[in-house]
Structure formats: structure tokens, C-alpha cells
Design goal:
The protein is an alpha/beta fold. About 45% of the residues lie in helices and about 15% in strands. The strands form three sheets. Strands 10-9-8-11-12 form a five-stranded parallel sheet, with helices on both faces. It is globular and about 70 Å long.
């Protein structure tokens, strides 16, 4: 997997060959996966890293990203010069013992930072001593130089599955699905989105291990992973390696849906594919789909009244520019092009997905709306992202930008409204808002055209 500090232009493929300075960074380091642990109800991360590392990662992903909040009670070894010289394994042992005395959790996840990775602390042996005593604890090597918080997320998941989940007495539970989708906290809307994904899957007759967020039953769902009939990867690439690993471990098949559905057309089609894959009751599923579509299209009918009567009053957008990580980029781009009828502008994917999966992701864009000419661009650097957008021909178009706070000045420059959908997101406060599924699509339309109306009025 490509490291975020690996230079894709380096023909030697050397590890950590620097691509130079990256302006306007749009992700955390591998240690930032502590946010994924915090997103599991009943789980607590224990960080073995330098002072401030854990705090900076979480508050970057939570605080300046739609002010999501979250309980940040993270014990840390706060390694200093002494541990760099003599090692910090003893300090970690002391911290774990103290944590167990004062904190209660269903699962502890020890995450390593850069210092123990560089000095060679044998963290595994420390943690194994507690595992042998029956303590629910695992270790994940998440040194910052190993990757970003996307790769760290998958490292943490693998650690929990391999060191904590026990398949010894697992019996197959037909209709139970494990869902691997959005990256907690990286996506500002992950809580509401996962709740909506759970709701629509339950609506067609599934029982759902959603695994993260308030909609999850917490660690109990993780223990139930081996019982699932199948795994659902609802993302262009994140979660694929996890699903493949579970297939090897338990023989669980997986369904890969690269595009998270937004809107009735995409959501209904998605649910029908899930029904077919899982062998569910079609009559029940179709009844649910019919009811959801009926409600959805009532609201769209009313929205059409605004749209038809406001084309001259407001600068209604005709072209969509999307700058974000691939999961939301593909989902939002698909909705805007195929269901709202906007023309595709630059679609820039910013989290550095694995090189070997990029062509597969690209095919999803090329399949959007016949002859639309949609293409994705993979770019991490903010300066180059903005150069790509500026080079676009906007003649005859009214663009709208879906991006992050980094795109605010760019949107003003090209005369486009900005809808913030990705990290960092400093002009939105998000608690349970969702943009996916049937109900989330309506909220995305509301936010989009409220932004358009406000921009036109203020202008």
C-alpha cells in the first residue's frame, strides 16, 4: 500500500521517498486511527508515543473537522529523551497497569507512534502478558511514518480481528452482515451516514454489525463478526483488505459496492443488489423500497417547484467540482451527475488510495452518465489541486464546489458556492447529519441549494 509520504514518481519505489512538501494536508497520520478506536462504543486507545501526538491527531480529525466532539480519554506514555535512548517498554507496561486500575472498557487498543517504532520497543511482548491474563487488549503498530489514518484504520481493524475476535464458538447467523464503509471522524458525516446505512439495510431484512458510532452496539458487534453471513464493503477501497482477510479466516463471502448510494435511484438499486447477494425476501425488501421512494419523491416534487421557479432569480449551478477523499467523492459525484443532472467538473481524490486500485476507482467515474466525460484526478497537494480546478474551462457553466475549508478562497475566486463535505471542515457543525441513502440525499439537496440561495442573495 502506498504511503502518504511515498513519492509515486520515484521509479525505485523506495519506502518513504519524499514527494516534497504537501500543502493543505487532508488527513492525519497512521496514529490518527485512534479516532477509529474512540468511534467503537466501549473501546479505549492507549497510545505509546511522544507527548502531544495523540491529542493533536484527535483534535485535528474531530475539532477542526465540523466540531464533532467525542470522548477523548486517551492514556499515553508521552515518551521523552530517556525512552528514546533506553527504550519505553517498561513505561508502557506501567501505563497499561495504571489504566486498568482507573479506567473501564470492553476493549483496549495499544497504538504505537513513531518513537517506539524507530527505537525498536517490543510492544507486542508487553501486551501479550496482559492478553494471557484475560485482559481484553490488542496492539496495533501505527507509527506515523507507516501511512495515514486510512491505513492506520485498517491496521487497527486487523489487530482487533486477529487478537481479540474469537471464532471458536461462532455459528453462522443468516441475515447478519458486517459493514465496512466510511472512516470515522475523517468524514464529518460518518455518524449520521452509518446510522442511515444501518436503517436501510435493516429495512430489507438484514441484521447489521455497523461496528462504529452511536448506531453500533459496540464491542459486542465486533465479537459477532465471525457469525455474519457476509461482509459488505461500501467504499471504493477502504475495507477491501479487511473483507478479504475475513474471507480467508472464516470463509465469509463479501459484496463490494464502491459507490455509497445517495438518492432514491442509487439507494434502491443498491438495496436490490444486496437482496440478490444475500438471498433475502424480495417481497419484504420491495415493500420497504416502495415506501421509501414514495416519501422521497414527495419531497423531490416539492423541491422541483423551487427549482423550476428560481432559474432566473438565483445562480443555480450547472457544473459540479468535488474535492475530497474517494468514498464521498464518488458518492457525491454520482448523485450530482446522475440524479441532479449537473455536468462533471474536476473530481479530485485527496487521500492517496493504493496505486493498484486506482484504475478500478477510475472506471466508476467513467461509467457516470453516458458521455459525461467524468474522470477522477488523484492528488494530495492543495496547491496542485487548486491549479487543476483553475485550469478548467468554465465558459457557459455555473460551477459549485464540494470540498473542504481549503477550497473557500478558490471557490470565491471562480465565483462558485462552496459546500463543505470533507476534512478540514471549519464552517460546519455536524452532529447526526447524513448525506447518504434516501433521507441523507434530501439533506444534501437542502444544504446545496441553501448555500446557492445564500450566495446569490449576499451577492
Amino acid at each position: 500500500m502506498l504511503s502518504p509520504v511515498t513519492n509515486a514518481q520515484d521509479p525505485t519505489g523506495a519506502f518513504c521517498s519524499s514527494p516534497g512538501v504537501i500543502e493543505q494536508v487532508r488527513y492525519g497520520c497512521s496514529l490518527g486511527a485512534l479516532a477509529s478506536v474512540i468511534a467503537i462504543p466501549g473501546a479505549i486507545p492507549i497510545t505509546h508515543c511522544g507527548p502531544g501526538c495523540a491529542t493533536k491527531q484527535f483534535h485535528a480529525l474531530s475539532g477542526i473537522n465540523a466540531y464533532q466532539g467525542g470522548e477523548f480519554h486517551v492514556p499515553s506514555t508521552n515518551l521523552g529523551n530517556q525512552e528514546v535512548i533506553f527504550g519505553g517498554a517498561d513505561r508502557l507496561d506501567e501505563l497499561i497497569a495504571s489504566t486498568l486500575k482507573v479506567m473501564e472498557a470492553d476493549l483496549f487498543v495499544v497504538q504505537t507512534g513513531c518513537i517506539p517504532g524507530l527505537v525498536g520497543d517490543d510492544v507486542g511482548s508487553v501486551v501479550r502478558r496482559y492478553q494471557k491474563r484475560g485482559v481484553p487488549i490488542v496492539v496495533a503498530e501505527t507509527s506515523g511514518y507507516r501511512g495515514n489514518n486510512f491505513t492506520g484504520h485498517e491496521t487497527v481493524i486487523r489487530a482487533i480481528i486477529d487478537q481479540f475476535v474469537d471464532a471458536g464458538d461462532a455459528s453462522l447467523q443468516h441475515g447478519l452482515v458486517n459493514v465496512w464503509s466510511l472512516l470515522p471522524y475523517q468524514n464529518p458525516f460518518w455518524r449520521g451516514d452509518l446510522a442511515e446505512i444501518r436503517r436501510i439495510l435493516e429495512g430489507i431484512g438484514l441484521q447489521v454489525n455497523i461496528l462504529f458510532g452511536p448506531a453500533s452496539a459496540g464491542v459486542a458487534e465486533w465479537r459477532a463478526i465471525p457469525k455474519a453471513q457476509f461482509n459488505l464493503v461500501l467504499s471504493p477501497w477502504l475495507g477491501l483488505s479487511t473483507a478479504a482477510h475475513l474471507e480467508d479466516l472464516y470463509g465469509q463471502p463479501f459484496l463490494h459496492e464502491p459507490t455509497i448510494p445517495i438518492g432514491a435511484k442509487a439507494t434502491s438499486a443498491f438495496l436490490r443488489r444486496v437482496v440478490e447477494f444475500a438471498g433475502l425476501d424480495r417481497a419484504r425488501a420491495e415493500a420497504f423500497v416502495a415506501q421509501e421512494e414514495k416519501e422521497h419523491y414527495v419531497y423531490l416534487r416539492d423541491f422541483a417547484c423551487f427549482y423550476a421557479g428560481s432559474t432566473s432569480q438565483y445562480r443555480l449551478p450547472s457544473q459540479a467540482i468535488v474535492v475530497s477523499e474517494s468514498a464521498y467523492n464518488l458518492a457525491v459525484a454520482s448523485f450530482l451527475v446522475e440524479q441532479l443532472g449537473l455536468n462533471p467538473g474536476p473530481f479530485v481524490i485527496s487521500e492517496n488510495p493504493p496505486e493498484e486500485l486506482r484504475e478500478t476507482i477510475q472506471k466508476q467515474y467513467r461509467a457516470l452518465a453516458e458521455h459525461s466525460g467524468a474522470e477522477a484526478v488523484f492528488e494530495q497537494d492543495g496547491k496542485r489541486i487548486h491549479q487543476i480546478v483553475r485550469a478548467t474551462d468554465f465558459i457557459g457553466e455555473l460551477p459549485i464546489v464540494f470540498g473542504s475549508t481549503w477550497e473557500a478562497a478558490l471557490a470565491d475566486e471562480i465565483g462558485a458556492p462552496l459546500v463543505e463535505i470533507g476534512y478540514p471542515c471549519t464552517d460546519e457543525v455536524v452532529l447526526s447529519r447524513a448525506y447518504v441513502g434516501y433521507r441523507g440525499a434530501l439533506q444534501l439537496i437542502e444544504r446545496t441549494y441553501t448555500t446557492v440561495v445564500r450566495a446569490s442573495t449576499m451577492a
